[in-house]
Amino acid sequence: MVKVEAVHRPDGARNGPGDFFDLLHYGHDSVAVDLSEPRDRANLREVASRADLILESSRPAGLARAGLVAAELVAEGTSWLSITAQGRNAVAVGYGDDVAVHSGLARIDGPDLLPVGDALADSLTGLASAAAAAKLLLAAQARMIDVSMDAVCRSVSGPVADHTFIERNGRWWVESKSGLHAIRAPRGRVPGGTARPLGADSDRWMQ
């Protein structure tokens, strides 16, 4: 897998906890491009044309301006998975909490409107996107799948069955009509190694 970032605007997650970024990107090659340079744009276009699948998490217009037009690459045989806030035809920008609240995954708590979980749109869309990516990689013909964070959240929102949270002997449980269900304690994951520095593999990929 190759992670491509703009050299003047790299992934903001690089500025967060190092272990989290390592969990996401250990084992990935890192390519940094200057999208203002015609040569970098041409090289990026050539790299993209050799990919089995492109994962796009920016607004579609951004990559199109850089010469990566989804319809063209799909026609040439590269599948494309686009992750957006509200679909490729919308101009909205969204993040985990605000998309979740907008799509109904929130509850009223006094004067506040609170998301029912932390950054739910991110995790739910990640699961939906992983399933979509598997379909694309197994498909006989390249195609595009547009994954809207808003649509994913709306697909799981709705009335919540009556339930109660119970603490017993230091453990939490959910009690509902279907019975008593244990809540697993959070378990941290350990990265397999360190993610590559920004642009560490640019020379090998950008000939």
From TrEMBL:
It holds the Pfam family CoA_transf_3. Gene3D superfamilies: Crotonobetainyl-coa:carnitine coa-transferase, domain 1. Residues 184-207 are annotated as: Disordered. Signal peptide: none annotated. This is Crotonobetainyl-CoA:carnitine CoA-transferase CaiB-like acyl-CoA transferase.
